TrEMBL record:
This is aldehyde dehydrogenase (NAD(+)). Coiled coil: none annotated. It comes from Neurospora tetrasperma (strain FGSC 2508 / ATCC MYA-4615 / P0657). Transmembrane segments: none annotated. InterPro entries: Ald_DH/histidinol_DH, Ald_DH_C, Ald_DH_CS_CYS, Ald_DH_CS_GLU, Ald_DH_N, Aldehyde_DH_dom. The active site is at E317. The lineage of its organism: Eukaryota, Fungi, Dikarya, Ascomycota, Pezizomycotina. PROSITE patterns: ALDEHYDE_DEHYDR_CYS, ALDEHYDE_DEHYDR_GLU.
Length: 605
């Protein structure tokens, strides 16, 4: 991360010294250039030192010191309001976390507000410095972060490396490199009538924002909203899931450590965890300026209703039924790569992935070949914390998933693998579902309409290879988050499908690539509204202030109300004709109308 010496300084030194023979004194005429170059070099060095990350330390994560396997693990325990934390992959007890009360939430929001008052005054450079040190910590402590996330969510280390570390590093790097460009004031055009005006748009902090995040990626889902909020100058309160309350405590200290390292108030970032009945205290709080919600449709409706009481804007990401489409133009030689992508996109994090592949829509030409390639791969998948597919967060979805598979099979779908929960011989208290392959699914089946959010591969055959038939299947559900299309770049059908997909994101010949380059993330229809990530995500956490000011105010060129339009209006008819002349000058199409407008102004002045 070391900065390079600017080329201009090197050129300046070379210019000063190139005519000086070796062993000779520097000519007096060159000293001014030498000193100015050295002074500039010193300034650059001090500035580059400021840009270097600070390596900070925090107490290590509190991993369990002894094995304590819960027989029937659940976050709820009779006799206490505390949240019981445990490892979904094994049932290992991790500890109890006391849920936040309304009074505790008030204190957290007040502390964030007090800290944000000072943070709002920081420069982009100061904010970048914090994020740069945070990125350094993430890179230096990847294994510990992954182990904490895996223990609390059940995913494998590989899944954590991709879904917790890689995407977080990308978001941090993107914000460090491009965040200021997105948020610095920008000029906007003017018009003929207002040619003496200068127009700018400013992106200012909102205050304290909130994020209600899901459990499937406990580190990234927590830190993602924090990165954007901090760079936009806000404080933030993150309501984490009860399912991952244990890890969120340590992950919060990771973020706060970067603030402390640079002399800022760590209270700027607050995390709370509470039972659902208390959550509306956050979502209707008058001191919250914006809410990012990641979760389900039913819960989002309650969040939006609660937020409406205080008129708090809500960004909603509600999952999807993402289609991965294999067109007839996809080369046969590319099918092995496509199969690898489909496997990763479907089974990563045991299918608990917001933009995971929920449906595979295949043109008839490739259908049988693709099934012959997928079937042995899915059947070979192993379950376990160090195997191919990890655990699900809990067993509450098992009956629903088994019902969806069974109903589809009754309606004619073929079950080629899995379809039921799995009693792991080594981890009997773990939450495992057998990786499932369900084919010959039709769009009217419930499993083709509802988000599974589990390790279930659903394959549908399109009626033909036409864009119309492909889109009829792909756009059938009331979701529209992500999607992917595989085919030849020279195929007009591919471009027609990309344009026609009802989705917020499309990856061409890839899966999930849009988020890996920080394009705006979000969907349409039942997948929610608003965007996070990218420029749109940063700006969505700002007060977008329009400023219109005089270009030549110092010359006395300012807006004045013409006499015919001053109150009290002397003559309504003449005043109206004068105003019409102004409109014709400003917007009349063609020179004749503009000249007529000038005449109207002069004759009615």
């Amino acid at each position: 991360m070391a900065a390079e010496i600017p080329r201009s300084l090197l050129v300046q030194l070379r210019t000063a010294l190139e005519d000086t023979p070796v062993g000779s004194y520097i000519p007096e005429s060159s000293w001014a250039l030498v000193w100015s170059a050295l002074a500039a070099l010193a300034v650059w060095y001090m500035a580059s030192r400021e840009d270097q990350p600070i390596r900070y330390t925090i107490p290590p994560a509190n991993f369990p010191k002894e094995e304590n396997i819960l027989e029937n693990p659940s976050i709820k325990v009779s006799g206490t309001s505390a949240i019981q934390c445990y490892a979904p992959a094994t049932g290992q007890f991790l500890g109890f976390v006391n849920p936040s009360t309304p009074e505790g939430i008030d204190r957290a929001i007040d502390q964030a507000h007090a800290a944000q008052t000072e943070w709002a005054k920081t420069t982009f450079r100061q904010r970048r410095a914090v994020l740069r040190s945070l990125l350094q910590y993430v890179l230096d402590n990847q294994e510990e972060i992954c182990r904490v996330a895996c223990l609390d969510s059940g995913k494998t280390m590989v899944d954590a490396q991709l879904g917790e570390i890689l995407v977080t590093a990308e978001k941090l790097q993107w914000t460090i490199k491009h965040g200021e460009k997105a948020l610095r004031p920008e000029s906007r055009p003017t018009n003929l009538l207002m040619a003496y005006k200068r127009n700018t748009v400013h992106y200012e902090p909102l205050g304290v924002v909130a994020a209600l995040v899901s459990w499937n990626y406990p580190f990234h889902n927590l830190i993602g909203p924090v990165i954007s909020a901090l760079f936009a100058g806000n404080g933030i309160v993150v309501k984490v899931s009860e399912q991952t309350a244990w890890s969120s405590q340590w992950f919060t200290s990771v973020i706060r450590g970067a603030l402390v390292a640079h002399g800022h108030n760590p209270a700027l970032v607050q995390t709370v965890v509470c039972w659902p009945q208390t959550a509306n205290h956050i979502t209707s709080h008058p001191k919250i300026s914006h809410i990012t919600f990641i979760g389900s449709q039913p819960v989002c409706k309650k969040v939006a209703e609660s937020a409406s009481k205080a008129l708090i804007p809500v960004l909603a990401e509600l999952g999807g039924k993402d289609a991965s489409i294999i067109l007839a133009s996809a080369p046969k030689s590319d099918l092995p790569r496509i199969v690898n992508t489909l496997m990763r996109g479907t089974f990563q994090a045991s299918g608990q992935n917001c933009i995971g592949i929920e449906r595979i829509v295949v043109a008839p030409q490739h259908y049988d070949t693709l099934l012959s390639m997928l079937t042995p791969r899915v059947r070979a998948l192993r379950l376990g914390p160090t195997a191919d597919v990890g655990a699900m967060i809990s067993d509450t979805a098992f009956a629903r998933l088994e019902g969806l598979v069974a109903d589809a099979a009754k309606q004619g779908a073929r079950l080629l693998a899995g379809g039921k929960r799995y009693a792991h011989p080594e981890y009997p208290s773990g939450h495992y579902f057998v990786p499932t392959l369900l084919v010959d699914v039709t769009p009217d089946m419930a499993i083709a309409q509802e988000e599974c959010f589990g390790p279930i591969m659903v394959v549908l055959r399109a009626a033909s290879s036409s864009a119309e038939d492909i889109l009829a299947v792909a756009n059938a559900p009331d979701f529209g988050l992500g999607s992917s299309v595989f085919g030849s770049e020279w195929d007009s059908t591919l471009h027609e499908v990309v344009r026609g997909l009802k989705a917020g994101m499309v990856a061409v010949n890839d899966f999930g690539a849009t988020y890996a380059v920080q394009l705006p993330f979000g969907g349409v229809a039942g997948s929610g509204y608003g965007r996070f990530a990218g420029e749109e995500g940063l700006r969505g956490l700002c007060n977008i202030k329009a400023v219109c000011e005089d270009r030549f105010g110092w010359l006395g060129v300012r807006t004045a109300i013409p006499r015919p339009m001053q109150y009290p209006v002397p003559d309504q008819e003449r005043s109206w004709r004068f105003a019409r002349g102004v409109v014709e000058v400003g917007y009349g199409m063609g020179l004749g109308r503009k000249v007529g407008g000038v005449v109207g102004i002069l004759s009615n002045s």
